[in-house]
C-alpha cells in the first residue's frame, strides 16, 4: 500500500475541518479503504471526541514523535470500522512540540500502512498549519459561504500555491440552499468565482451533523442525512470515482449551472 | 562564533534597522541574525527590521518562522528585499514590503508616470490572493485577478487583465496622472495619488473594462472602455 496523504485545512476556525476529517474517514472506511487520521490540532484535540474514541487514548502523536511509544501503539482502532484508525493529538502540549520534518517522517512511516492518511489541521496559517500541510500530497480547503471564511480560504490557497503543494480542492460546508435562493448567502458560484479552484464537494447545513458529533458517530453513517450523503460523495471522489453533485434544490437550476461550472455534468 | 556574526550586517535606516545577509545557508544566516539579537536585546527591542537577503530563495515556511522568532523578541519584520523572484513572491504573500527606499517628500512631485520609462513595470502572471501586498516603484501589470484582501501600491499605473477586487493605490508618490485599469474594476479601495474613493458599486452592473483617473476637476472618475473609440 502507498497511502494518499490528505490534509484538511481552512484559514478561518470553526468552519468544519474536524467534522470533515471524521466524516471522510468514516465514509472512506465504509467504502473499504484503510484509513489513518491524524489530529494535527495539538493542544486542542477533538477529533477523538467526534469519532467517539476519547476514552481509548493511551498514547498520542507527540509520544510517537518523541519515541515514547511505537507508531502502532498510538493508532487507536475504531469501534465499528476495523480499517479506521486515529492518532490523537496531545492535549497537554503546545503546537511547538512537533516540527515539520518530524511530521513528514511520521507520514512517511504511515504510507505503507494504509490507503489514506487524513490530517486535521488547526485554523490559521501559523506553525500548526505548516506542520499539518508539510507531508501532504493533496490539500482540501474547507470554507463556509461567508465572506470572512472565503477571504481566509483565499489566503491559505495563496500560501499553498507558493509552497507548490499542487492545486488545492474546495469543500464548501454549511450551505443553506434556501438562503442562497433568497440571496442572503453567497452562492457556490460566488465562492468559486473568487477562489477559482476545483470544487470537490458541497455539504449542506444539517443539524444532524451536530447531533451525530455529540454522539461520537459521524453523520456519514446515516444513510438518510444530506450532509452524510455529501461526505460519502466526497470520499468516493477521493477514491477516484466520478460522482455527480447532490441536487440540494431541484427547482433552482443552481445545481445544473454548478455542474457545468465544475465540468462534472 | 565571531565568524558567523560576520554573515549579518546591521545598519540603521531612517525608520528602523536593516539587516543584510549574504549567500551562506539560510539556517546559518538565521542563526547568526538571532544570535546578534540575543546578544544585544535592548538595542533591537521594538525595532522595525528590514531584511536584505541577496539571492537567497525563501519559501513561506522559512520567512514565517523567522518572522515569528523575531516577533517573540519584539522585533517587527516589515520588509524583505531579495533578488530571487520566489523570495519576492513569498514576501508579497505575507504582506511584507519588497523594497525599502521611500522618496523624500521634496522628491515626490518631480517624478511623473512618463519619466518611469518603459523598463519599470512589474509583470505578475498570477492571481493575487487575500493577504498579498505588492509594492513597486513603477507600473504594475497583473495577468490574473486581484482578490479582496490583496493590495497593490504602485508609483506608476496599474493594469489588471482580470478582476480587480482588492485595494489599489496608483501614483503612490503623488503622481496625479497615474491611471488604474482593469477588465472588471470593482476594487474595495481605489486611490490615485492622494485622491481616495471607496466605490460602492451596484453588484448587478455589467462588468466592462474600465479606467480610473483624476479628471480636470481633480476628482476620481471612472470611464468605461468601449471598442468604438
Ligand atoms: N454541515 C454542517 N451542518 C451543521 N453544523 C455543522 C456542519 N459542519 C460543521 N458543523 C458544526 O460546526 C461546528 C464547528 O465544526 P468543526 O469543529 O468541525 O470546525 P473546525 O474547522 O474543525 O473548527 P476549529 O478551527 O476550531 O478546529 C461544530 O459544532 C460542528 O458540529
Ligand atoms: Mg477542528
Please render the helix and strand layout as text.
The complex is a heterodimer of chains A (265) and B (229).
Chain A: E1 4-9, H1 17-30, E2 35-39, H2 47-50, H3 61-65, H4 71-74, E3 76-77, E4 84-87, H5 100-111, E5 116-120, H6 127-134, E6 138-143, H7 147-162, E7 169-175, H8 177-181, H9 188-195, E8 198-204, H10 207-215, H11 226-238, H12 254-262
Parallel strand pairs in A: 1-5, 1-6, 2-4, 2-5, 6-7, 7-8
Antiparallel strand pairs in A: 3-4
Helix pairs in contact in A: 1-11, 5-6
Chain B: H1 2-5, E1 8-13, E2 16-21, H2 26-39, H3 41-44, E3 48-52, H4 60-72, E4 76-81, H5 85-93, H6 105-108, E5 121-124, E6 133-136, E7 139-142, E8 151-154, E9 158-164, E10 167-170, E11 180-185, E12 189-192, E13 195-197, E14 210-214, E15 220-224
Parallel strand pairs in B: 2-3, 3-4, 5-7, 6-8, 7-9, 8-10, 9-11, 10-12
Antiparallel strand pairs in B: 1-2, 11-14, 12-13, 14-15
The structure holds adenosine-5'-triphosphate and magnesium ion.
Magnesium ion binds next to helix 1 of chain A.
Q: Can you put this structure into words, describing what you see?
A:
The complex is a heterodimer of chains A (265) and B (229). Chain A is built from twelve helices and eight strands. By secondary structure, chain A is α/β, with parallel strands linked by helices. In chain A, strands 3-4-2-5-1-6-7-8 form an eight-stranded mixed beta sheet, sandwiched between helices. In chain A, helix 7 (147-162) links the parallel strand 6 (138-143) and strand 7 (169-175). In chain A, helix 1 packs across helix 11 (226-238). With 229 residues, chain B is α/β, with parallel strands linked by helices. Chain B has six helices and 15 strands. Chain B has a six-stranded mixed beta sheet with strand order 5-7-9-11-14-15, with no helix packed on it. Chain B has a five-stranded mixed beta sheet with strand order 6-8-10-12-13. Chain B is elongated. The A-B interface holds A 100, 125-127, 130, 147, 151-152, 154-155, 157-159, 161-163, 194, 196 and B 59-61, 64-65, 68, 86, 89-90, 93, 126-132, 145, 147-149, 165. Adenosine-5'-triphosphate binds next to helix 1, strand 7 and helix 10 of chain A.
